[in-house]
Backbone:
């Protein structure tokens, strides 16, 4: 937590917040902060700044906040990722948020197990929580958009062409020969398949709407690792 | 597990192995393999190929192996990484292995908590196991070298100059202005600090032996995410 992310309901006056639970624990146990210490804080979808601890006990912490700076800019990047195993999903969402993606879409694919769509980790509350974890890590406040696309064909035919319009369109594909481009500045829509890859029909559907298959080398990477490697290569 | 990694002691004859425990469970529960199915296999530090399941019950699986292909080439990359939190260490080691680093060094730094060095995750057995997980994910067989460097100053003064000799020397640093280079082909030694960064003295010691501080943008990434982003940018 490199930034304590504040929500509108945390405010008890114009410049003061009162926190309990997870954030209090983190401030006490990880930051080991004391009365009078300052912390980096930010308000969800607003500015970042400094927070002065004005009261602290076992139950609550009160912080006086002053917000002056803009959060770090987002990347002009939409990540479309095939739903990974539930175990991996949280880290994928937090990482994509932390790396600065503007928008994320979790997509179905032939090789995604149907049972994954029943995971409790796809609840609204968890999808929000994982993005908040990513923002806190990155020192950012602006929540990336996140959508679920449970049906591959209608999403790719009807919605993705609009989403990806006027962006560089790439799909990471183990069988591709062209390496992924590096150090781009233009907006990009990057599609990442399931660990077993997209099936030929799926790749063809993506190619048909202008997505170029690009390679990430000969090693099979976990979704989370592949995503960080691709974003590092494209933008950082 | 995109490759079932075999050890010399698994062989019951020249071309047959018998497996129990973790690998058996994975073959049954994740691959859902049956008698007569073939799997991708490889022998530690040797070739990769196909394995035919010739016997399978609750206790053991027997596989007839034929090895013809070389494992994927390693990157000419040494990763030197400040010891992360124990919770993160396993993933950092597995990821670096999976991404293809030839060698890893786990380094002390001012902002590494002393207690981290007492973690059971630094046992020989766990350090081997995490590299095996990374090899199984990547479809590789060649174990990257891994060393622990518990004392920053003597390591950087005496050992690192030899290790990094004739390689591109980079240290990822939040305050650096120069962006990390992309798409290199030459050998590289890449140093990644603790999440709080190296202190000025440490950066100076690294600069003194030819390491250039490079930036990864304005966001604070977790060690594992930063590592994948940097490797994706440098090599993939």
Residues:
């Amino acid at each position: 937590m490199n930034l304590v992310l504040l929500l509108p309901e945390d405010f008890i006056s114009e410049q003061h917040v009162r926190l309990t639970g997870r954030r209090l624990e983190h401030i006490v146990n990880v930051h080991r902060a004391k009365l009078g210490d300052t912390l980096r804080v930010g308000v969800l979808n607003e500015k970042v700044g400094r927070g002065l601890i004005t009261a602290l006990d076992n139950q609550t912490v009160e912080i006086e906040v002053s917000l002056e700076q803009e959060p770090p800019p987002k990347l002009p990047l939409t990540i479309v990722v095939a739903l990974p195993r539930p175990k991996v999903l949280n880290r994928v969402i937090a990482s994509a948020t932390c790396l600065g993606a503007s928008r994320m879409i979790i997509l179905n694919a032939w090789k995604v197990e149907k049972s994954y769509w029943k995971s409790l980790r796809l609840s609204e509350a968890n999808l929000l929580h994982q993005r908040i974890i990513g923002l806190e890590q990155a020192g950012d406040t602006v929540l990336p958009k996140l959508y679920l696309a449970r049906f591959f064909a209608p999403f790719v035919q009807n919605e993705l062409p609009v989403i990806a319009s006027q962006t560089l369109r790439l799909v990471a594909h183990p069988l591709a020969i062209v390496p992924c481009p590096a150090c781009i500045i233009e907006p990009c829509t990057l599609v990442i398949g399931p660990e077993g890859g997209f099936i030929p029909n799926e790749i063809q559907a993506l190619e048909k709407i202008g997505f170029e298959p690009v390679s990430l080398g000969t090693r099979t990477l976990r979704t989370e690792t592949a995503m960080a490697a691709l974003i590092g290569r494209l933008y950082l």
